[in-house]
Design a protein that fits this description.
Layout (H helix, E strand, L loop, with lengths): L1 E6 L5 E6 L22 E4 L6 E4 L35 E5 L11 E6 L13 H18 L7 E8 L11 E7 L4 H16 L5 H12 L3 E4 L3 E4 L8 E7 L11 H18 L12 E6 L14 E6 L1 E3 L2 E2 L4 H6 L8 H10 L4
């Protein structure tokens, strides 16, 4: 992998990740951009104790542009985009409309490929490995920024999820706090350790899924994909390395080498859940990494959670009263049936 860092016209950082060592990235951003001005701030909810990012400047962000005006495509034929080069493998840049900025953290956009019409599932294993390298490198770099407590790599895919740009891309958030979901995991981790005489919760969850077997979707040499026992979403898969590590940086070479094959297979199965004639499945793919200063950081298990809000053909799972009002999920698809379906649509 070759990494080349540069700056966009307004001063934001742009990093190219190339599979070829001889790639030259010297294109200049020729757009007349004004300096970035953001109003992002973090506010605490006094009742729940969690954080809310207030970012009013995001109201003006690009919204569903036509394909020929996509800001994530390469700059070609006199049209200038966020990527000054005429082509790229993987590109990462600071978000022009960040939810978190300055003392409140940082947001980056990860462009998986220059091919506007592709998706992550269309990538080759070599391309997916390069994205993994980029996620890992950005985790390392963002972890060094003052005040950053947790790095979150994720992908929103599909208009139903709320995606406003159709180009295959994801994002990385560097939070200045531990997220509420991770805090709950850490609390469960500590409680399980105390009640079992020192056993690790993540290890036991993975062992229980293997022992049961009904919810295993894919069992590879270094990774396990399964539908969790208490899945919140109609189709939800958790992907764990079999050797527990706290973050992407700690993955060993074997797990890194096998990841593209396993992840691409899971994504391709997601697109086949509802039948070959159905549109691509909308999903969120979220990497869960240990917070940087958590006292039991070494006990946390890196894992990826993948889920879709589509519950059946043509129907979405809406977060209605119970889910949105009380955070009590009601799942219409039994996890065992979801796992069975994901095994049925395995790649030929």
């Amino acid at each position: 992998m070759k990494k080349t860092a540069t700056r966009l016209a307004d001063g934001r950082e742009l990093i190219y990740y190339d599979a070829r060592d001889d790639a030259v990235r010297d294109a200049v951003d020729e757009r007349p951009l004004d300096p970035i001005s953001t109003t992002s701030e973090i506010r605490r909810d006094a009742l729940l104790g969690d954080a809310v990012a207030v970012a009013s400047h995001r109201q003006g962000r690009t919204y569903h542009p036509p394909a020929d005006d996509c800001p994530l495509c390469p700059s070609r034929d006199g049209r200038h985009t966020e990527i000054p080069a005429a082509d790229y493998d993987v590109a990462v840049f600071e978000n022009r409309f960040p939810s978190l900025a300055g003392d409140s953290g940082r947001c980056e956009v990860v462009c998986f490929t220059s091919d506007h019409g592709a998706s992550f599932a269309d990538l080759t294993e070599e391309q997916a490995a390069l994205v993994l390298d980029a996620w890992t490198d950005r985790t390392a770099e963002l972890s060094q920024l003052p005040g950053v407590e947790q790095v979150f790599c994720f992908e929103n895919r599909g208009a139903e999820i709320g995606v406003t740009l159709g180009h295959p891309h994801g994002q990385i958030y560097a939070y200045p706090f531990t997220t509420p979901r991770t805090e709950r995991m850490l609390a469960s981790l500590a409680a399980h350790r105390a009640s079992t005489g020192g056993r690790n919760l993540f290890d036991d969850v993975l062992a229980d899924e293997h022992a049961d077997g009904r919810r295993i979707v894919l069992d590879a040499e270094h990774w396990t994909a399964f539908v969790p026992y208490a899945a919140h979403w109609p189709y939800e898969v958790h992907l764990y390395p079999k050797r527990r590590v706290p973050d992407l940086l700690a993955l060993d070479d074997d797990a890194r080498t096998e990841f593209p094959q396993v992840y691409l297979e899971v994504l391709r199965r997601f697109d086949r859940i509802f039948g070959e004639a159905e549109p691509p499945t909308p999903y969120i793919a979220a990497w869960h990494q240990a917070p940087l200063t958590a006292p039991d950081r070494a006990d946390f298990a890196l894992h990826l959670e993948l889920f879709t809000i589509r519950r059946t053909s043509g129907k979405l799972k809406f977060l209605a009263g119970s889910e949105s009002g009380m955070n009590v999920f009601i799942n219409d698809v039994p996890p065992e049936r979801a796992a069975e379906r994901l095994r049925e649509v395995a790649g030929k």
